[in-house]
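Researcher: Quick test of sequence recovery. Tokens follow.
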């Protein structure tokens, strides 16, 4: 019984550690394009709020770096990538969000 409790506690500790270390705020958040959940989804670039990552197809080697400027007309105001809505929004509406929140 004690062994089962110890194993349960160790499993819980490992799960907590994996959750904490799953996000690296000092990294650039470059996605793995071999993971189907990352395909055709705009993913925040931690290093540049005007850019996001894009995996065009499953199994592609590297994700593309897209800019919000490429989505807007030259006459429109500049925009930043909003990780909450996964879209580019005007700077007046943009708010910084903790990368690992």
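Model:
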């Amino acid at each position: 019984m004690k062994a089962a409790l110890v194993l349960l506690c160790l499993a819980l500790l490992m799960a907590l550690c994996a959750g904490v270390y799953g996000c690296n705020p000092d990294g650039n958040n470059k996605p793995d394009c071999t993971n189907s959940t990352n395909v055709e989804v705009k993913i925040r670039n931690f290093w540049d709020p005007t850019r996001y990552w894009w995996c065009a197809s499953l199994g592609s080697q590297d994700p593309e770096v897209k800019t919000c400027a490429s989505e807007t007309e030259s006459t429109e105001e500049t925009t930043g990538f909003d990780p909450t809505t996964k879209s580019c929004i005007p700077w007046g509406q943009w708010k910084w969000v903790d990368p690992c929140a």
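Strands lie at 43-44, 51-54, 64-67, 79-82, 87-90.
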